[in-house]
What we know:
Layout: H1 14-20, E1 30-37, E2 43-45, E3 53-56, H2 60-69, E4 74-79, H3 97-108, E5 113-118, E6 132-133, E7 136-137, H4 140-156, E8 160-163, H5 170-180, E9 189-194, H6 201-207, H7 227-239, E10 243-247, H8 253-262, E11 267-271, H9 273-284, H10 290-304, E12 308-311, H11 314-324
Amino acid sequence: MEPFQRHRRLRKTAAMRSLVRENIVTTDDLIYPIFVVHGNKQKNEVPSMPGVFHLSIDMLEAEVRELEQLDIKSVILFGLPAEKDYISSEAYAADGIVQQAIRRIKDLAPDMLVVTDVCLCQYNPLGHCGLVEDGYVTNDNSLELIAKVAVSHAEAGADIVAPSDMMDGRVYAIRNALDDNGFVDVPIMSYAVKYASAYYGPFRDAADSKPQFGDRKTYQMDPANVREAIREAQTDIEEGADFLMVKPALAYMDVIKELKQSFDLPVAAYNVSGEYSMIKAAAQNGWIDEQAVVMETMIGFKRSGADIILTYFAKDIAKWLKESK
């Protein structure tokens, strides 16, 4: 018997490393975010998110065809309204921007899985995720509107609704509203564990959703807490969630692991805008190998327990996977 183990035997060749690889990333794991806007022939790059665009409805066909060619099967939609008001009325309007986008994508690609972000923040001038009364984001009065948003998305053809507002009881309210309106088969992907994070900055540029007063710390979670994440996830399961999401992902892989070990629902990791833009910026400056860093990050999410990854890198990843074959 040799005095030490020859672990390198299993790393000797690329074929050997592939044979014993424990985690892989495929396009089946990915959900690609799309930002939709009103107007025509609109394809405008978000300055703080290189390679991410605002797209008008007429530009969705080219986007969908590219995603099909890349074998990306799932998208999540975010909308920017034509006008904002204090009750976020376009968020649940039948002809709202997201509702139009759902119908268009389903016309173009019936089998594409369409997930929709359910929130009020983009649609009201104060930029908060619930109704604001006397300078405070109210909880219970927000639930009816949040549920209306989810139902309107289901009516337009959404496959999955994903509430991101972090109001208490919103999964329960949405589940009841969906069921009461005949959408018992529409699942809920809950942003169960959403932290009050500094990593959201570029997204708030893209979605025009920066809070106009205060912050979101009274409803989004304290980054210092893990036990609270378990309580939030457990509550959402009891209220009817079908998926659990952790957002952000990169600094919270321990939380992803905790959810994976504690519950038996699919776990999604949201690789958020700040994580994306940091890598893009470093790559553009020649400081890192973008492909290597992105793929290592994705493997990290899978290794921590993520079944699903929402990422702005989805197209890049799909191209790299094709090239590797």
